[in-house]
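Marked as duplicate of an earlier ticket. Keeping the data here for the record.
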Amino acid sequence: MTAYYQAPTETFLTEDLDSILSKLLQSDAASGFSQVSQRQIGSWRLTIPGLKKAVAEAARRTAINGVVLEYRIPRREKRIDCALVGGKEAVIIEFKAGSAGESESAVAQVVDYALDLRNYHKASHDLSIHAIVCATEFQGTRDLSGEAPLGIASLTLCGLNELASVIDKVFTASGGGVTAKEWADSRYAPVPGILDAVGLMFARNDAREINECLASSEAIEATLSYIWSVTRQAHETGRNHLLLVTGVPGSGKTLVGLKLAHQAQSHGIHATYLSGNGPLLKVLKASLTNDYAKHNGCTKAHARTYAEALLHSVHSFIQESHLSGDPPSESLIVFDEAQRAWDEQKMAKMRTRQQRADSSDGDDAETAERGPATSEPASIIEIMGRPRPKDARGVVMVALCGGGQEIHDGEAGIAEWIKATRRSTDWTVLSGKQEAADAAHVQTVDQLTLTVSMRSHRASRHAEWVDRVLEGDFERARALRQSVEHPIYLARSLDSARDFLEAMNLGTRRYGLLASSGAARLRPYGIEVSAEFRKGIDYSLWFTAPKGDLRSSCALEVAATEFECQGLELDWAVMMWGWDMPVGLLGFEPRAFRGVEWKAMSKGRQADYAVNKYRVLLTRAREGMVIVVPKGSRHDSTRSSEQMDAVARMLLISGSSGILVAG
């Protein structure tokens, strides 16, 4: 149940106030999320009669199908006071009982609601959504539509006495359309943000809230169901299984991993969530620490200990397992961002670095016991395949792999996992990636492939558009944009992009600045991407601090690179294009800055990594993106204006919306 009350307009108008209040209170008690106070009841007693009067007057001239009260938006711990539906329109009303003026927080709140419905509520996808803040003591009306974000038809502030005229003005439905019940019962279906998912699953204990708020796509549920069926088979037969789950950015791979780790508790299975992505782990731990402390009334120190026990670095897991020599106690391992697992060369390099550190500390004997370096996939397969008691369960290893997401030297991709199991007779290998079918010992399974981005229904084909752009197939990219509703805007200055987002009034949406770690010549625009600089930034606060905090991403002062944002997401992104990715005759041509000049990269792994950096950056936004292509300089060859003009032209050809502000 997501709405406390819903009824056809005629029923709402004829039902007495006490009956409506009784239903609201009963629904609140049954919801398991009781939040009703005497103040709330007083607010209902004040606003519902006024709403009835307004709806009765407006309904004489327009076809309002029904009224929904207290619609609870999953994940956001908020309820929409009122929704009116009919025809191709929905009117969202936020009441402020006793208020006589405009409230920035109330406007931000109703904007948030409207955007959530537009992006994630199935019955609202094709509706014009109007947002109203009704401050009961306010006199007159104020049209705030100029401050409304894209996709919101209108935004109005009014008093209770003027509510009827505002509804009458914005609600022009002539009949037909969704009913109140259909609207209230419609699926609210985003893949939740990763930080939301971690907080819901591991910081809060209400199973109903978890199940309702983390409802996901049929594809994700099919993948989970298949993994659990394989897990049961492994436990019954004692045979080890490696499952390679593949998918496009935003398709829900990390959510699959988090759900597995969470559901394992109810299955009585000891599971561990691993990642080699240090920045991702840091942000997840910080978010979980804050959420756990808030919802369980404990200290941050206690909450931090809890977070550390749940989320593990794969590098530490391997090191500790090598030292112990014993099989781990876990029978289910989830390795997120598994395409970034290190190959043998990288492991050898890191081993040498560790040996030097140990030697300086006098620990040569301990280092010698670790054995020769192998790739991370090979190490994990060896560790999880260590002999166990005869009656022990078979081990299941779930590796979540993003296609084209390897971004740094030594990241081996899915091929290294296949290589690590090629000579092993102890593992059954199942993969969702078609290319894996070339390996005789690998079985390809459709349920292990997630092909559609689920961050928003409007972004379902955005990853495909990004692929076409980076391949230099600009005409096909343009054709794809006809079916992609994910807004992409082009700007030629960072200030114009900042002004654009600030003018959009995005409520509490999170937005931030992104740039490639190879974009060394963005300094003249105030963007520093050097590793030394980034080490001094707390990116856990960048992702979690609220708007208004200078450390927050919303300040649009500090950029996150592909290393900080991979595996995470923003609602809106401002992505700075750099001179490390100019366009040539055959498409984009990656370069590296060496000394005081750019050097072209020959085709090969390093060039692939460079392109993948932009693939990661261009797929971080859930709801929309502004790509900033700086104008450059005609007097500085490292910031060629001609090269950036060419990039801007190609992005326009590919279907990006026109330049926001030429400046």
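See parent ticket for discussion. The longest strand covers residues 78-86.
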